[in-house]
Amino acid sequence: MREMSVRGMRESLGRLDDLVRTEGDIVVTRRGVPIARLLPVAGGLARPSHDDLRAAMTKLDTPREVLVRQDRDQR
Pairing relation of β-strands 33-38 and 2-5? Predict the structure, then answer.
């Protein structure tokens, strides 16, 4: 577990993901008092592919151009 001040966290914000991955838990402190704890997500997040998302969507009978035009006309 690593302690890091708020200022140090702001300076390291661009590489915070790498720090959490390598260090594990990070305790954020303000004036030496712990205020937050950052933890890595167990197992990571699985992201589906765009093809899988498209395949899971239902097909519309009405073309999207018609739906967009109807939506704009209602405004």
Answer: unpaired
Task: Give the closest residue to 38 by CA, choosing from 55, 19, 10, 63.
Answer: 19
Residue 19, classed as helix, strand or coil, is helix
Q: What's the whole-model pTM score?
A: 0.53
Q: Give the DSSP letter of residue 1.
A: -
How far, in Å, CA of 38 to CA of 33, rounded? 15
- The pLDDT tens digits for 29-44 are 999 999 999 988 876 6
Q: Is residue 4 classed as helix, strand or coil in its secondary structure?
A: strand
CB-CB neighbours of 4 under 10 Å? 19
Query: What fold, for 2-41+49-74?
Result: YefM-like fold (3.40.1620)
Q: Which sequence spans correspond to the domains of the chain?
A: 2-41+49-74
